[in-house]
Amino acid sequence: MTATEIGTYRRRLAALADRLSRDVSHLEEEALVPTGGEASGGLSDVPLHLGDLGSHQFEEEVTLDLVGKEEHILAEVNAALERIGAGTFGRCEHCRRPISRERLAAVPYARVCVACAEKPGR
């Protein structure tokens, strides 16, 4: 892989990391919004209807699940940036062969080539 290609991947990964960090922060804020009562801006301490509370709890769980997934991708992106620094970016962690440009175009933080990813148990 050429230095120009590595630079392109570095910029792309850095932009992705920045976007994911903002998304995670936004999702965390969204998930932690209080429900019902004076804490949420209501006029009394009476919570919302039980159905509303259940809906809010479900939405909060979905949002926190999204946060977890975004944080996982962010960790993978940061690991890819570290591999660039170590000079191992673009090589499969299992077979050590180059990861195809098509795969890196689709998943720039890929750790393994398509052949190794398709093997059972991985």
Measured between the Cα atoms of the first and last residue, the distance is 26 Å
- What percentage of amino acids are in beta strands? under 5%
Describe the biggest sheet? none
Number of strands: 0
The string of secondary-structure elements, in order, is: HHHH
Provide a count of the helices: 4
Assign a percent range to the helix content. 55-70%
Mean pLDDT: 84
Q: Tell the overall outline.
A: elongated
Tell me the domain tally. Answer: 2
Radius of gyration: 21 Å
* Unreliable residue stretches: none
What is the multimeric organization of the chains shown? single chain
SSE-based structural type: mainly alpha
Describe this structure in words.
α1 runs antiparallel to α2. The model has no long low-confidence stretch (mean pLDDT 84). The protein is elongated. It is mostly helical and 122 residues long. It contains four helices and no strands. It has helices spanning 3-31, 50-86, 101-106, 114-118. The protein folds into two domains: 3-88; 90-122, no CATH class.
List the helices and strands and how they pair.
Blueprint: H1 3-31, H2 50-86, H3 101-106, H4 114-118
Features:
122 residues, 0% strand
Summarize this entry quickly.
With 122 residues, the protein is an all-alpha fold. It contains four helices and no strands. The mean pLDDT is 84.
